[in-house]
Amino acid sequence: MKKYCCKMMKDAVNTKCDKHPNRSDCPDCLVHYSPKFAEYGIIVHDGGSSSVLIQFCPWCGTRLPESKRDLWFEELARLGFDCPLSQKIPKNFQTDAWYLGKKQEAQE
Known about the structure:
alpha+beta
């Protein structure tokens, strides 16, 4: 179960909208959480899926976990993946399983 620094952050990350199936399209969805990178970001509502990395909670000021994005690429490179964004990577690298030590059998 995911723990949040405060109720506002929990609500922001879990906001769902009946009108917009994609959270990036909804102006009420403000914060994105990426489990595979363990990073939070403010959603950029420009028609894409980008977000701006944040290091502190905008509501309570708590320092957020350090991004594991660089470590993700380094670990995949160590395993022989030279272009993981276009290659089929192990399923556990698509979630937080890779750094939490969870095993997943299937690959995408």
